[in-house]
Amino acid sequence: MLLNTYEPWKFAFSKEIDFEDLEEDSFGLIGVPFDSTTSYHSGARLGPIVVREASFGFEKYNTVFNKDLTAAFYDFGDVNIIPGNCEKTCQIVEYTVGELLDLNIKPIIIGGEHSATIGAVNALCSKYNRLTVIHLDAHRDLAFDFIGEKYSHATVMRRVHEAGANLVQIGIRSSSEDEEEFVKSTYNIQTFKNRDVQKHMDAIEYYLTNIDGPIYISVDMDVFNPAIAPNVGNPTPGGLFVHDIETILETLCRKNVVGLDVVETASNKLGDPTAVVAAKIIYDFLTLVE
């Protein structure tokens, strides 16, 4: 009997997992179905499901980059989050990413709200010196606390900065006065706002090309124009388009990228346009990495 079936709980083209024979220096996907600090549009906890499902809409040959997707990667499923407890969930993510790193596997995280990045970066900063986080987002996420909470989608990059990472923020078009003052007060946060992407992409490419050391990429889906990615936690007018992210990924994937997250897809609908774009980011990244 011939059956046309696939595994909807695994990202398309992922390898079968055999813990006795994992390929070193490969990538491992984990989902973080958590959105308990969401302050506007909820639903990101379902992001890992709909993004994985959307991945089955792509061919193995990537016509944008004229390359087959040949990178070795595994989908390890979702972490066991603790609903309502962001700090402990971040610790679980940190521990899980640490386990992947012990296996010489680099993490790809599907969110879920942006707080998952805290755990991933904490684990990576324990392994790598001089980690640079490329943060693609409409918002700075640099609040010291948010409604009294230090662990939140709105404080994620403040915790990342405290972990010792350098920050490059791209696509910013919304922030508080306190966040702007904090950026001015520190030396290791570089900003390319939304208009810079539209007018000075060559300068951004040049800057990214000259980064030394390991790089982690964090993509909040609200960095996109809401016309193409409407279902996010905090949609913001303006924003990037798919070709902008393609250019940035093509530049970064020539460097030493040690991890990626794609977060804040907030939808429960299969075939959701935001989920399709999120899946494409992961698909393009895996096509480009050598």
Short descriptors:
about 290 residues, two-stranded antiparallel ribbon, 9 helices, about 20% strand, globular
Describe this structure in words.
It is a single chain. The chain is of the alpha/beta class and 290 residues long. It is 33% helix and 19% strand. The protein has helices at 47-54, 86-102, 116-127, 156-162, 177-185, 194-199, 201-209, 242-252, 273-288; strands spanning 26-32, 61-62, 67-68, 73-78, 105-111, 132-136, 166-172, 189-193, 215-220, 257-263. Strands 4-1-5-10-9-6-7-8 form an 8-stranded parallel sheet, with helices on both faces. Strands 2-3 form a two-stranded antiparallel ribbon. Helix 5 links the parallel strand 7 (166-172) and strand 8 (189-193). Helix 7 (201-209) packs parallel to helix 8 and helix 8 runs parallel beside helix 9 (273-288).
Protein topology:
Layout: E1 26-32, H1 47-54, E2 61-62, E3 67-68, E4 73-78, H2 86-102, E5 105-111, H3 116-127, E6 132-136, H4 156-162, E7 166-172, H5 177-185, E8 189-193, H6 194-199, H7 201-209, E9 215-220, H8 242-252, E10 257-263, H9 273-288
Helix pairs in contact: 1-9, 2-3, 3-4, 7-8, 8-9
Question: What's the short story on this structure?
Answer:
With 290 residues, this protein is α/β, with parallel strands linked by helices. Helix content is 33%, strand content 19%. It has helices at residues 47-54, 86-102, 116-127, 156-162, 177-185, 194-199, 201-209, 242-252, 273-288; strands spanning 26-32, 61-62, 67-68, 73-78, 105-111, 132-136, 166-172, 189-193, 215-220, 257-263.
